[in-house]
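Write out the 3D structure for:
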Amino acid sequence: MFDLLIAGLINGNAYALVALGLSLVIGVANVVNFAHGSLFAVGAMVGWLVTSSLGMPLWLGALAAIAVTAALGWLINLVAVRPFAGKAPIAAVLATIAVMIILDNLTQIVFGPEVRRFDSGLPDITWQIGGITLRLIDVVILVTSVTLMLVLAGVLRYSKLGRAIRATSQDREAAAQMGVPVARVQSIAFMVSAALGGLAGVLVAAYFTTIAPTQGFQIGLAGIAAAAIGGLGSLLGAVIGGLVLGVAEAFGVGLWGDSARQLITFGALLLVLWIRPEGILGKKTVRREPLTGTFFAQARPVVMRRWQVAVLIALALIPTIPGVFDGYAVQIGVQILAFAMIALSMTVIGGAAGQLSLGQAGPVALGAYAAAMLTKDAGLPFLVAAPLAGLVSAVLIAVLNAPSWRLSGHYPAIATLATGAAISAVLLVATPITGGGSGIAQIPLPDIFGIQISSTTQFYALGLGILLVLILLVHRLGRSHLGLTWRAIRDDEVAARSAGIATPQYKSLAFGIGGFIAGVAGAFWAAQFGFVEPKIFNPNLSFQIVIIAVLGSMLRPFGAVLGSIVLVGGLELFRVASETRLLIYGVVLLLLIWFRPQGMWTLPLPFARLFRRADAGTPVVAEQSASAGLVGTLTPAGRARTGAAERTGPAERTGTDGGEETRS
């Protein structure tokens, strides 16, 4: 028992260092840095190079890791955070995800992906204290971590830099008006944060004596969980959250095995957020959520006429003609359709209701497993099992996310990340029902009206049919009263709530419908592969879904299709450079976030501004003012006196040049 406690405290100290860095950045820049785990891996590999490869002492390896990661922290702030200052935080969040992809793959290219031994060079000295065995590396980690935390606390409390950091964290604009160089303070915060992550990488590698460049992602997620448990932006809370998480993991893994680690991590996070929404030591302050109506304010989606939609559908049907494309190309098309279905769920959750889900792999997993069991065990046909799987996913996601509507700021998005990861973890440990790590195999092929779907071309045709039905569903929802209510919440939740709209219930409904769409997509996924297992539906898949949806544009269903074409098809274009294709893709992704953050299915910003000037003096038609009418009153000129309409871009036009337009 005491050995587990010591192991938990040591792991907890590593988590605390990572969480400290994350909380420092969140407090200063209001951004969750998803590249922080990558810095952990970079620090570990630099430490390995200096100590194990070059034979130098551990302290020199730690200093080298601190120097390299601090420089990378400065660079991350420069390219991924500072360009989006004053904009919706989702842009910076996506940019840090792009940097995460770049750093992870660059580290593997430089050092190689294999696991290697980390030799700290410390003598093998142990002490027996009351039945507890302590190694020298244990003492080094504990002393180093505690010393660093005390030094950081002293700097923040008593130094001029510390006062500047605290002032920027409390009120950035007020600090700037008082002469605080907030840009420089933010750069320093990123450097200190990155250095803490790099040092944690060296200490953890020395403790476990092995390291791989791929380990940073999971540590980064654990750090986010620890920071949220303690309270985002609270440095003392980050320390407490890291220690609590480390001890809980140590005892949980000791009792139930390593397969329960992820469930303990994200289950503990959800439990804390449900009981105390702001975390253990977090303050009850409301900050902007990562995705809000302001993110779409300047965007004008591409509007298509029906004949243009028909042309696109006709082009999409070409791969169903035998002999036009080879089997591999059609298989890529099937993958594009599958990811487009999943990303379409984000059009409802994000584009319509203005919410950000970082755990959308969860409802996909629920749909895939439900469909697998309904077709294999219950013998139901695919056309019956798929919508039932969607309903199962919708109900469970709505129920699991319901307690999160009391949260604000970054917490709702982090709660969705935890929910998605927890679902995958439950599927892993529920072996009697889900098969555990072995998953469910030999899922029957779909049978559509007596025709068994077995060839790649047939799966493409089935996927295209499902996607078109789901696009029509989302399109009709967007034009309904429900869609207008969602947009009112998206554009200005405070005004919508003041007008009597039950925003938590409507948010829950959006997640439920998004869960239904993702569940149906999961059913298609399971039928296509004939096999499902929990590790398929990891947080990486959730990040891919968000990237597809945002890059394509969440304002229109066809944005999800375009984003899927770019992500899935783009990776195939880079396949000629197999070792560097993900690195190239990360760079391209970062460039797209810089120049087209509202998505590719929108007009370029100069054209959007031109349309807004052209629309400025025109009366607002009924459809334009519908969402505004939910939260305000229209004057004869069509301007909303109060509510969301004052803060949104121009509404879409319909039938303005003799042709009927459709929102697609």
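The longest strand covers residues 126-129.
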